[in-house]
Amino acid sequence: MKPASLSEGRRGPAQIWNSAPQLAQVPAIALTRLVPPGARVVVIAPHPGDEVLACGGLLQLLSTREHPLQLISITDGSASHPGSHVWPASRLSVVRPQESAEALRRLGMPLHSLKWIRGGFRDDALAAHEQPMSQFIARYLQPGDRVFTTWCHDGNDDHDAVGRASAKACSLVGARLYELPVWAWHWPAREASVMPWQRARKIRLDTWSVARKLHATHAYASQLVGDPQIGLPPKLAQVLLERIREPYEIVFA
After folding, report:
1. Which domain holds residue 68?
2. Cβ atoms within 10 A of the Cβ of 136, count?
3. Which of 40, 127, 204, 245 could serve as 161's disulfide partner, Cβ 3.0–4.6 Å?
């Protein structure tokens, strides 16, 4: 399945996020149903920024309830601008983790107590390292953890691989996995029937939480610009920023 062009805005091709009728029927879920009191939460992000795009609102809700939190960043995101001399991998490998720290600060996350693991896996090549990635993830999980990561059919090779590897790790350890769509929202509307709507649950966000999430997304300055010299568009296109203004996040439970 091919995502719709992220260079298009609301007036562009209909995408799942802004036109699927099933979205209105997704039931809301209370945070305590997802994460019991005292449970540890682990968020696994394929690339820097995926944790904000997927569940920046959820992270805010969890931080206010003082759940133990662990973030696993699988890659440093340094392959986001292939062929660019303005944003070479050597620069991005330093910049993108810094952007993540600033984004988490904007969300109000307790950086002093957040356990943050960096995997160091090669960006844009995770499918070839799925087994060692699964073993790596399992080392940092505990029985009873609530684990949130990208959906294994999200339509991005790295997202899909991390979803599969996380599922294997959770099964091995005895943790509970929840999947989050990110790029799948930008599939053409005709693909909406492929989404597992029966598993979908809506986490409602207030206006302030949405605003903080959008503010955090703008911390990823490197992703807001492409490289016109080589025809590379921004990764965080306007249509994606429009989508994260929605007053909810969807989790596949």
Report:
1. 16-29+37-252
2. 18
3. 127
